[in-house]
Design goal:
The protein has no helices and 6 strands. By secondary structure, it is an all-beta fold.
Length: 101
């Protein structure tokens, strides 16, 4: 099964690495940072280490320290420390200091 993950600076077919930290830009959950704990197929689970994973229902919002699962078709991942150009966040909010123009 080919990977559909979109990871900045990595070739097509790359899979997120367990233990790595990524900036996650998700169509439904917004922009936040997570440390990966599990990858299986098109799903990725991890701990929110910075920011908040949004949700349609307030009781599904995940804050720092909480566990969140995202799907590859809705996500763009940027490895921590990656200096490559970034697409604008889907929610329009800057994800790091200095991103605001």
């Amino acid at each position: 099964m080919a990977s559909d993950w979109k990871i900045a600076g990595e070739p097509d077919g790359s899979v997120p690495k367990v233990g790595a930290v990524y900036e996650v830009r998700n169509q439904r959950k917004g922009t936040f940072w997570m440390k990966v704990t599990k990858v299986w197929g098109e799903w990725l689970t991890g701990e929110v280490v910075e920011g908040v994973a949004l949700a349609a229902m307030h009781y599904n919002v995940v804050e720092e320290g909480g566990e969140v699962t995202v799907r590859c078709g809705h996500s763009y991942l940027i490895p921590a420390g990656d200096p490559s150009p970034r697409p604008a966040p889907s929610d329009g909010a800057p994800s790091r200091e200095g991103d605001a123009k």
